[in-house]
C-alpha cells in the first residue's frame, strides 16, 4: 500500500491494535446487552468513555414508562410475538479465513458453520437478540446490538476527531442521500450542490426531481480539482447559474462512480480546507472504501503480498473525510451493499449528533429504519459470529479478490485496446475502470458530436456482445459541452475469461468507429 | 359476520372459489417463473387476462440488453454473488391449520416444517427464487415472485373494478404514506388534507413537517360523518383555514387507529360519492383489514362459530374502497405488519397504473424497495409453502385469536369500569378500544380543562401500573377545542389476565379523579 504507517491523525498500527482491545474490554465491563422490543438507544452507549457527552438511550415519550416494574401496557399497537409464524432461522456462513464459496458450502465444520436464531433466545439467555425482537417493530435508530457493532467499527476505522458523533442505520445509501438532501437543501431557496463533473447517475436522479441543481467540479486522476472548486465558489454568479451558491459538496472520494478515481490524502486535505473557506458541508458516499488495492503493475500483475494483518490493513486505508473533520461538517455514508449483500438494504451514516438527530426524526416517518430480519442477520454474522477481527479479515480477503479481478480487466485492456485512441488510469479502489477515447483522433472529428460517436460505439459493442456504461449517462451538467468521450467498465461480476472476451469485443467496436486495424 | 353473502359488487362465495381456481390454472399455464437478479416486472404479468392492458416486464434502459444471448456485462456495478457470505437459510414455520406457537415449535413434522432457501436454487431448478437473487440488488418494484403473489391476493380479495391497477411493494405503510403525500401534495401550493378528527399520530407527524395541514372530519361510531365532510368541503374558506381546499382524504376505514371504528359498506359508499362530488383522491390505510370480527355479545362472549371456509371469510369482508373505485381515485395501503411480522418492513400499495408508476419512480431513489431477505422470507412462506389457501387460513385463525383478545378486554371493561362516566362501542375490527369519559360529570367541570383531567388520569394510571394512550395524542387539529375526553387501549399484546388487572387499575385512576366509589 502507498500510505504511510503513521498517518497525520496519528492512527498507527499499534493504535488500531489498542482500539481493538479497548472495545473488547469495554464490552466485558458493560456486561450483557439488555434491549427488548423497539428499545431506543444511540451510539453514545457504545463509544469509548472519552466520546460520551449525551445521556444514553433516551426512551420516547410513552415507552419510557415501560420500564416500570409490573406495568401492563395497553399503550402501543405492537402485535404479540406469539403471532409471528417464524420460530427459528438458520444461516450457513463461512468461518474466517475460509471465505471461498466452496469452503463454506462444504459440510466440513472447519470451514463453514451454521448460525441459529431462535424466537426467544434473549429470554433463554443464549443471545442478545432474537426473532421475537427483530420481527417486531423497531426504532428508526436501528437495533441496539447492531448500533453497538457499527459504532465500534466506525471508531475503529474512522475515529472522528470530535466527541458528539453518532451513527444511524439507513435503508442503504440511496435512501440516505435522499433524506440528507431533503434535510440540507430547499428548492424554494434555489439551492444547488457541487459534485464531480461525472457523478453517480442515481445520485443525480435523486437531486433533480427535488429541484436541487447539481454543478460539476472538473476532475483529474485524483478527483475534483481544488482550483476548479475554489474558482467556482469564489466567482459564483447566482443569476448566470440560476441557483444559490452551493453549501453542500457530494463526493465519492474512493473509487468514484463512474471514474474509478481515488482522492489522495493530500487532495482530501485540500478539498476540506476549501470547504472550510467557503463554509461547505461535505456528504461523502463511500460504498467502495474497503476495496482499496495495491497499485497495478502492468505485465506481472500486482505484488502477491504476504498475508496482511488487520491492524496494517486499517492503518493503510486513506483517511475518510470523517477522520479529518475537526468542524463537524461531514456526513459519511457507509453501506453493506458492496462488501456483504446489497439485498439487505442496510447501511449507516456517521455525522454530528445535531445532524443525526434530524436524520432520525425523518427516518421515523420515511421508513422506520431497515428491515429487522436484515439487521439481525448482519448482526449475528458480523458481531456474534465473526467479531470485528473476523469482519476485517473478510474485508481484506474481499479486497484481494477485487484486486485480482481488476488486474484481469487491466491485463485485457493492455492486450486488446488500441492505445493510440484509448487511455485509462488503473484504479486503486472500487469496481470501475474509466476508459477515455480520444475524440480529436476520430475520422469524423470535429463535425460529428461526441454523443453521436459514443452512441455508435455503444450500440456496436452491444451487437458484438458486450455491455458497458456510456460516459454521458453520468454527466452532472448534461446541457454543457462534453469534456471528452468515456466508457465505464466494471470488474465486479464477470469472470477473468469473460472480461477478456468482452474487452476484445469492445475493442472491435472502437476500431470500427475509428477505422483502425 | 354481519355482511351479506352477496355483495353489491357481486362478490359471492362461489365467485371467490372461481377466482382461486383461476389463479391455479393461470399459473399452471404460465409455467415456471423465470426472473433473475433485479428482474423488472409489473402486476400485469400476473393478472387475469381481462385486466391486461400494458406490455409486461419493461426492462430498464441498459438492463434490457442483458437478454441478448452470450452478452458479457461490464455495465452495472452489481457484486458477484460468490461474495455473499450467506449460503443457505432456513425458517421453521407452522403447517396450516396448526398455527399455535407450541405446535410449530414442536419437532412433530405434522404441525411444523422447515423452509430451506439455498443460494443457487433457481439454477438447480428447485425454486423460483434464491439467495443469489434476493441478496443482490433488486428493482424498486420488488421481487417478481412476491409481486405475483401480492397481485393474485389483491385480485382475490379486492378485485378493483378497472383494468389498469397495479401493486407495488413498499417499505411499510409509514414510508408509503410519506411517499404518497409527497406525490400528491405541495407545501408551496398551500395544500391540505382531510382525515378523521382523531387520527394515527405517526400519519400526522408525516404530514406536518411537509407543511401539509391536516383537517379533521367529525366522527360517529361508523367513522367520518358524511354531512361533516360535505359541509367542510362545500363551505371551504381558504383564508380562514389558511389552506387550499383539500383534494386528498386520508382514512383508516377498518378498525381505525385510535378509535377502533369500522366504516360500514353504506358509509363507504356515501363517502366515496362525496369524494366524487368534490373530486377528492382517497388514500386508505388498511393494516387491520383482515381482523374483522363477529359482533361482541356481552356476558357470553362472541359466538363460537363453526370452522369458517376461506370463501365465506373473503365474501364476508366489508369491501375496500378499492373495490368500490370506478374512477381510479383510490390508493390502498396494505401491510404485513399487523398480520405477519412488522419487522419485515414490507407492505404494498394498489392504485391505478399512472399513480403506481410515479410511486415507483420515487421509490427508486427513496429506498430501492424493501429488503431482499424480507421479501424472499415472506414469499417462501406465503406462496411456495402455504399458498393462497394457507395464508387465508392463517388470517382466519389470527382474526379468531384477536376476537378472543377483544372479548377478554371488553369483559374486563364491563366488569370494572364505572359505566356512569365511561362509555365505549365494542370494536368489530382491529386492535383498539376507544374509551370515552364524560367530561360533564367530572367534579371540576367546566373550570378545569379536558387536557388537564386527561393528564391527571393518565399519570395516575401509570402510577397504578397501566399504560394507555391519551386521546389528545391523536387530535388532528390540536389547536381547536377538544370534543371529548378519550383513552385508547389495545388488546394486541397483553394476556387476558393482565388485561383484567390493567382495566382494574385504569378504573381506579378514573374513579379517583371523578371521586366515585
From TrEMBL, chains A, B:
EC annotation from Swiss-Prot or TrEMBL: 2.6.1.57
Reactions it catalyzes: an aromatic L-alpha-amino acid + 2-oxoglutarate = an aromatic oxo-acid + L-glutamate
Keyword Cytoplasm: yes
SUPFAM superfamilies tied to this protein: PLP-dependent transferases
Biological process, per Gene Ontology: aromatic amino acid family catabolic process; lysine biosynthetic process via aminoadipic acid; tyrosine biosynthetic process
GO molecular function annotations of the record: 2-aminoadipate transaminase activity; aromatic-amino-acid transaminase activity; pyridoxal phosphate binding
Gene Ontology, cellular component aspect: cytoplasm
Cofactor: pyridoxal 5'-phosphate
Domain Aminotransferase class I/classII large as annotated: residue spans: 166-506
Top-level EC class: transferase
Compartments, as annotated in UniProt: Cytoplasm
Pfam families the record matches: Aminotran_1_2
Alphabetically ordered keywords of this record: Aminotransferase, Cytoplasm, Pyridoxal phosphate, Transferase
The UniProt record lists the keyword Cytoplasm: yes
Family note: Belongs to the class-I pyridoxal-phosphate-dependent aminotransferase family.
Stated name of the protein: aromatic-amino-acid transaminase
Amino acid at each position: 500500500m502507498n500510505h504511510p504507517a503513521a498517518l497525520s491523525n496519528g492512527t498507527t498500527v499499534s493504535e488500531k491494535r489498542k482500539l481493538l482491545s479497548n472495545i473488547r474490554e469495554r464490552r466485558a465491563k458493560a456486561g450483557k446487552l439488555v434491549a427488548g422490543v423497539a428499545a431506543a438507544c444511540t451510539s453514545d452507549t457504545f463509544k469509548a468513555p472519552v466520546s460520551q457527552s449525551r445521556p444514553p438511550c433516551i426512551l420516547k415519550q410513552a415507552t419510557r414508562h415501560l420500564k416500570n416494574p409490573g406495568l401492563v401496557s395497553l399503550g402501543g399497537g405492537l402485535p404479540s410475538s406469539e403471532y409471528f409464524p417464524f420460530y427459528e432461522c438458520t444461516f450457513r456462513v463461512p468461518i474466517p479465513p475460509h471465505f471461498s464459496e466452496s469452503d463454506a458450502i462444504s459440510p466440513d465444520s472447519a470451514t463453514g458453520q451454521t448460525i441459529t436464531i431462535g424466537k426467544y433466545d434473549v429470554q433463554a439467555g443464549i443471545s442478545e437478540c432474537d426473532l421475537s425482537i427483530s420481527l417486531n417493530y423497531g426504532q428508526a435508530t436501528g437495533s441496539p446490538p447492531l448500533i453497538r457493532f457499527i459504532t465500534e467499527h466506525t471508531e475503529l476505522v474512522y475515529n472522528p476527531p470530535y466527541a458528539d458523533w453518532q451513527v444511524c442505520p439507513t435503508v442503504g445509501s440511496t435512501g440516505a442521500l435522499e433524506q440528507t438532501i431533503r434535510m440540507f437543501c430547499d428548492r424554494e431557496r434555489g439551492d444547488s450542490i457541487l459534485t464531480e463533473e461525472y457523478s453517480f447517475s442515481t445520485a443525480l436522479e435523486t437531486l433533480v426531481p427535488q429541484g436541487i441543481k447539481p454543478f460539476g467540479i472538473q476532475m483529474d486522476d485524483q478527483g475534483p480539482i481544488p482550483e476548479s472548486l475554489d474558482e467556482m465558489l469564489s466567482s459564483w454568479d447566482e443569476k448566470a447559474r440560476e441557483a444559490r451558491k452551493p453549501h453542500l459538496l457530494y463526493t465519492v472520494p474512493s473509487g468514484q462512480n463512474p471514474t474509478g478515481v481515488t482522492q489522495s490524502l493530500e487532495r482530501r486535505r485540500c478539498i476540506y480546507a476549501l470547504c472550510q473557506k467557503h463554509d461547505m458541508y461535505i456528504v461523502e458516499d463511500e460504498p467502495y472504501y474497503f476495496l482499496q488495492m495495491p497499485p497495478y503493475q502492468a505485465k506481472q500483475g500486482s505484488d502477491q503480498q504476504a498475508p496482511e494483518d488487520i491492524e496494517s490493513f486499517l492503518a493503510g486505508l486513506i483517511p475518510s473525510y470523517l477522520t479529518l473533520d475537526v468542524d463537524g461538517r461531514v456526513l459519511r455514508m457507509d453501506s453493506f451493499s458492496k462488501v456483504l449483500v446489497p439485498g439487505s438494504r442496510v447501511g449507516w451514516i456517521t455525522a454530528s449528533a445535531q445532524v443525526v438527530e434530524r436524520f432520525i426524526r425523518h427516518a421515523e416517518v420515511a421508513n422506520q429504519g431497515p428491515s429487522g430480519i436484515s439487521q439481525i442477520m448482519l448482526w449475528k454474522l458480523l458481531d456474534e459470529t465473526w467479531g470485528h477481527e473476523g469482519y476485517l479479515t473478510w474485508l481484506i480477503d474481499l479486497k484481494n479478490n477485487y484486486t485480482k479481478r481488476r488486474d484481469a480487466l487491466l491485463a485485457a485492456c493492455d492486450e486488446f485496446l488500441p492505445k493510440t485512441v484509448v487511455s485509462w488510469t488503473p484504479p486503486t479502489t472500487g469496481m470501475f475502470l474509466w476508459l477515455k477515447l480520444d475524440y480529436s483522433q476520430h475520422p469524423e472529428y470535429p463535425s460529428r458530436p461526441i454523443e453521436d460517436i459514443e452512441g455508435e460505439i455503444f450500440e456496436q459493442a452491444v451487437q458484438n456482445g458486450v455491455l458497458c456504461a456510456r460516459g454521458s449517462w453520468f454527466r452532472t451538467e448534461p446541457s454543457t459541452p462534453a469534456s471528452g468521450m468515456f466508457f465505464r467498465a466494471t470488474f465486479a461480476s464477470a469472470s477473468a475469461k469473460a472480461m477478456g472476451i468482452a474487452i476484445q469485443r469492445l475493442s472491435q467496436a472502437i476500431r470500427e468507429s475509428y477505422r483502425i486495424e
